[in-house]
Specification:
This protein is 18% helix and 33% strand. It starts with 9 loop residues before the first strand and ends with a strand. By secondary structure, it is α+β, with helices and mostly antiparallel strands.
């Protein structure tokens, strides 16, 4: 269908709040600038106007477009932030009260040229009016009146960094001839092994219709409906192939089309799966297609948090990066925005599960009729996008919606919210019956204390914000962490230099500190948190190190986050932990710097990304120091049954010793062994008994498949590692094709947290331990324009190893 607004010039102007309400009164000398739609005021302003707070002013978006001779046409606004008036040819046509609800306007009877004017009203001016107060105050935002507005907290909550508030046409605006299909609903459900497709549609006029359901290879199902004006069809596909998260199987999808009078109209892509969130005994275990799934991933942030719209190619790259790391779930957080349709289609294609919060966070939602009606339309709009999408697993009533009143001391009776208790469950039963529901994130199963991390859905920051020792990970009893492990994670060296010019700004400069997350009103920030763990894990004073060697200071910070991630996911993914999943806060930074993200704003992985990837692989080895019981190793398998060999290598000063044991593991299962049982005797490999000097410096465990090919490995260093002049680190690089190289590393002594630092190339692994005289090969992927040049360094070594191809 032709979009008449494609390529049309949009212009933007600013007026004082409330000064002009009719586009006919706009002065001729008003300063206009070009605007990109979809986009926001901030993305359009750039340097065109002095720095302003978009909430403080009114804004006008204007465009003129030819109707190209169409007798009937309509214009659709997929999202306007936030309160706005829509004018067509000088006539007021619609009032917008929510940035999350699309608006469609019939243009029948308009002339050959249509002038569209969108007047966006100042929220700051609106917040000055007196409205009913909530039962509690939100600690996330300063303006408590925002509870009445259906808008994002992005730009309004300081924890997300110095971002502008989103104001404007943040979602596409399209103008088309009056569509033949005015309204459509598509959903799926399983009935035993059969897939059920439900298609409802309202047609502009009667037509001969046919439904086509096909896979990527061929048409598999056709239903002739004859001449109809309305479609309400239920189709059964026998023995369908199921959609699986990529870690557990193939994400199988099918395409649904409606042929109307010979013209094919795409209805959408669907998939078939069953979902259950097992909440028994205070747990939270996601069960997909009858199989328990350990969910690992993180909270999603918009790739462009200013424009709030990303090209599909950028979304694909970002999601494929997560998929390649073994992550299988993202959570769209209730204080941000709903994602664009391309995000959903890509998650379905790539086998990435989605936990979707409704856009509520920490506030007391109003109960008046207008607010409820707006939320109802918002829910319908969400369902129109996701109802048939198999990647949607969980829908939550918002972020910290129940935690906030709990932390403020309100009793259970004072926390009742009709929105969560009535409106949303009724909506789910009607539009999304196959999606699991939790009242909010976090939320308790067995009591009203939604802060308890061992009951239901937790936000776990015992390790992180609350400075608990790493041992708290084992004792806290987390059942599912919908957020966890908040640190101010430094970007890698090259990114720091790109963002700030040098590392000299780290820890003190205002430009650096602006990106460091801080809870509103707190006297500390999350860089203080990271420094605490540097001190407790490595026994050094981070502030003293920063004075002398800021690069080393950042490396200690990176290593501390890797240590925390390794310890946390190494425990949570174990079958015995009782944990059903963990999502880090967060996947990607919103601004350049040391944010919560494990990926920086340029898309470059930070140190803990690699630790999470190692623990998240569909086949993974988890090595745990169990004190006097020695090392335990757990082989976790999300895929089909495996057989092979478990190899344990103990590294001592006089050389290494290898021990092997044949193992078999069922599908979607884990196998736990002790290192001593593989060795066949007591070893004190972790030096827990301390009988004399330490015997071993490192331990490596590998799993080899039936052909003897390495599938996965893990290495632990024994005892405290002192920093020395050299550990004998070497690096050799060999080209495998025009864009890929292999880097082989070796170390004469144990090398702690080896970092592969090569500009322009992304390493398949980094920030890992290297055992003595045990070569490790990683892949370097670049753009093929140049050969890799850089260095490899270890935290416990002053000397670095240079990387350059042999001449």
């Amino acid at each position: 269908m032709i979009d008449l607004l494609a390529g049309v010039r949009w212009q933007l102007a600013r007026t004082d709040a409330g000064s002009i309400v009719d586009p006919g009164d706009l002065p001729a000398d008003l300063d206009w600038i070009d605007a990109v739609v979809p986009g926001t005021v901030a993305s359009a302003l750039d340097d065109a106007l002095p720095e302003v707070n978009p909430d403080d002013h009114d804004w006008w978006f204007v465009a003129e477009v030819s109707t190209a001779g169409h007798l009937g046409a309509c214009v659709r606004f997929d999202g306007i932030a936030t309160r706005a008036q829509i004018w067509i040819d000088g006539v007021h046509r619609r009032t917008v009260t929510s940035m999350f609800v699309p608006e469609t306007i019939d243009l029948t009877g308009c002339g050959p040229t249509v002038r569209i004017a969108v007047h966006i009203e100042s929220i700051a001016a609106r917040l000055k009016s007196r409205r009913p107060r909530g039962r509690w105050r939100s600690s996330l935002i300063a303006s408590q009146g925002l509870r009445h507005e259906r808008t994002t907290m992005l730009g309004r909550a300081p924890v997300y960094g110095p971002l502008p508030v989103p104001v404007g046409l943040w979602r596409p605006v399209t103008m088309t001839a009056t569509p033949e299909i005015r309204r459509r609903e598509l959903s799926t459900v399983m009935n035993g092994t059969d897939g059920i497709v439900v298609l409802r549609a309202e047609l502009e006029s009667p037509g001969v219709a046919r439904i086509l359901i096909s896979d990527t290879m061929s048409e598999i199902h056709t239903v002739d409906l004859g001449s109809v004006e309305r479609i309400d069809s239920v189709l059964t596909l026998p023995d369908v192939e199921l959609w699986w998260p990529h870690t557990h199987g193939l994400p199988r999808t099918y395409r649904v089309d409606l042929e109307l009078d010979g013209t094919v109209h795409p209805m959408g892509v669907v998939g078939f799966r069953t979902v259950e969130l097992d909440r028994t005994a205070g747990g939270a275990q996601l069960v997909v297609n009858g199989r328990e799934v350990f969910c690992r991933g993180g909270t999603w942030t918009p790739l462009d948090p200013v424009r709030l719209w990303s090209p599909e190619a950028d979304l694909r790259n970002a999601l494929e990066q997560l998929r390649s790391a073994g992550l299988n779930m993202v959570r769209v957080v209730g204080t941000l925005v709903y994602e664009q349709p391309e995000f959903w289609s890509l998650c379905a294609e790539l086998g990435i599960m989605v936990w979707q919060d409704l856009m509520f966070g920490t506030i007391d939602p109003p109960t008046d009729e207008d607010f409820t009606a707006s939320v109802t339309r918002e829910l319908d709009a969400l369902a129109d996008t996701v109802a048939a999408n198999p990647s949607l697993m969980v829908l939550s009533g918002g972020s910290e919606t129940q935690q906030q009143p709990t932390m403020l001391g309100l009793t259970a009776d004072g926390q009742h919210m009709s929105l969560l208790e009535n409106l949303v469950p009724e909506f789910l039963a009607d539009r999304l019956p196959t999606v699991a529901f939790v009242t909010s994130s976090p939320s308790s199963v067995e009591g009203e204390l939604h802060t308890h991390v061992g009951d239901g859905i937790a936000h776990y920051f015992g390790v992180g914000g609350y400075l608990r020792p790493l041992s708290d990970i084992r004792t806290a009893g987390v059942r599912f962490a919908a957020e966890c492990l908040a640190f101010a994670v430094p970007p890698e060296r090259a990114s720091v230099e790109s963002f700030f010019g040098s590392a000299a700004v780290a820890g003190h400069h205002p430009d650096w500190k602006a990106a460091v997350p801080r809870d509103r009103g707190s006297s500390w920030d999350f860089e203080d948190v990271r420094d605490h763990y540097v001190r407790t894990i490595f026994g050094v004073d981070p502030h003293s190190i920063r004075r002398d060697d800021v690069e080393l200071y950042l490396d200690y910070g990176r290593a501390a986050t890797v240590e925390a991630f390794t310890e946390a996911f190494g425990h949570w993914r174990r079958a015995s932990s009782g944990c059903g999943g963990a999502l880090v806060l967060s996947l990607r930074d919103t601004v350049p710097g040391a944010g919560w993200g494990i990926i920086d704003t340029a898309g470059v992985p930070k140190a803990p990304f690699y630790a999470l990837a190692r623990a998240s692989s569909p086949v993974a080895l988890l090595l745990s120091d169990n004190g006097l019981d020695g090392y335990a190793v757990e082989l976790v398998n999300d895929g089909p049954p495996l057989s092979g060999t478990l190899r344990v290598v103990l590294h001592a000063a006089r050389g290494s010793q290898e021990f092997e044991q044949a193992v078999s593991i069922e599908a979607n299962a884990s196998l736990e062994l002790t290192v001593d049982s593989v060795v066949g005797t007591f070893t004190d490999a972790n030096h827990a008994y301390r009988f004399g000097r330490r015997t071993y410096s490192a331990i490596t465990v590998l799993f080899l498949d039936g052909s003897g090919i390495e599938v996965t490995r893990t290495t632990a260093l024994v005892g405290t590692q002192s920093r020395q002049n050299t550990v004998g680190l070497t690096a050799e690089v060999v080209e495998t094709d025009s864009a890929t190289w292999e880097l082989t590393l070796c170390s004469e002594w144990a090398a702690q947290y080896v970092c592969v630092d090569i500009d322009g190339f992304e390493a398949s692994d980094s920030w890992f331990h290297l055992a003595p005289n045990e070569p490790r090969t990683v892949t370097l992927a670049g753009n093929g324009a140049s050969a890799p040049r850089g260095h490899v360094r270890a935290l416990n070594s002053v000397e670095r190893a240079s990387v350059a191809p042999k001449s």
